[in-house]
């Protein structure tokens, strides 16, 4: 019997939950952060763009865009699938600083702020971050294999690594 | 604020004219740099969400050479001049007479492309600024070679705070004589959401 593995793709400001033997992938993370929350057989991936939903002037926001709301939503979906919260772990990647300048002050260090916001939210939910590859000035494509629990991080100039 | 959903054909035509004026001037500048005839495409105006934008440039992982700058002043926005790595190499060879291969590791090539991006985006913006009488000050351009999504999303941060869509004014310039070596580059002008009012007002388009 062949087991069909699907690569579940997560877009920008998007999130997905899937089961073994599938993998979860998101491409071209710059200042955005990819957040994987997983246990043995199930995992979710969120592609977070901005740190804080309360900073938006609009009332109707895309919850998957912000670190705070996106992680809440991802967790909610995982819990609906029947996972136990205490077994969950997280791996994160991204939060780079693509340009050596940013003209507008509030956009300074957005990558760093995204990472901080993600870590704060995970801490709030008591989900341990077991691996991370963040910062720098490179784009990253990440793919998470639920079976092995490994997160593959691919870059243009600094190769591939597993965390 | 101008809502993106209710832009009329007239609004879109005005934005096309914005692209025409800017890229026309940039094409002239590139033409005198290379001593070749440069053509420009008819500008296309696209209203895309972030994921569509990535598909538009060949996918989020597509490696691009990008010169990015922020426009400051009365109508802030972001501007990208985007080339493929191959086109960049070809452009460097034509300009400097030296090999432009492995652009990432070639300081001369990087410096040449930054300068070209600087000149071209400067001519685009000065034409636009003259045409609209809007004061536009570009920041120092930033050359980045990486995945398209990683680069473009950082340039879209201002827009992403308020919107899930971006209006792109896309114009392509390319050599008139097509060959394997021919260069074509895209200008993406992405005004911040609040800037459309300024642009339309400056060009005498009333809101409907």
TrEMBL record, chain B:
InterPro entries: CheC, CheC-like_sf, CheZ_family_phosphatases. Signal peptide: none annotated. It comes from the Bacteria. Coiled coil: none annotated. One of its GO terms (biological process) is chemotaxis. Transmembrane segments: none annotated. It holds the Pfam family CheC. One of its GO terms (molecular function) is hydrolase activity. Residues 11-45, 109-144 form the CheC-like protein domain. Keywords: Chemotaxis, Hydrolase. PANTHER family: PROTEIN PHOSPHATASE CHEZ. This is CheY-P-specific phosphatase CheC.
